[in-house]
Amino acid sequence: MYTKNRIFDCWIFTSEFLENSVLELGLFAGLLFTICFIFGCHTNTPTYMLSFILFQIVNLATSSISLILTIMLHVMGYHLIDTFILIFFMVLQSYYTIVIYNHYQNLREGIIS
């Protein structure tokens, strides 16, 4: 919820903004690193691709932690269908990360010019 400041006639963010800002920051960072990745692929510059690869590795690590916590909840009796969806997207993301890393290595070693 936004509240209006009557003195400066601008919008001030409340606590709901702070709760959603982490998600928005992650989406913005993902967009920025994806643009760097596309630019790196277009110009065959592996330096720009490295930021995207590191971002993907961080995403995989956080997804792994989320999967471990979901499995713990499943053992405690909370049966969540999200586990299968999370595993599917982790496998897909892992495959894409390996393919992108392979392309990065080929560019860095000069196999692809």
TrEMBL record:
It comes from the Eukaryota. Keywords: Membrane, Transmembrane, Transmembrane helix. The chain crosses the membrane at residues 21-40, 52-72, 84-104. This is Uncharacterized protein. It comes from Rhynocoris fuscipes.
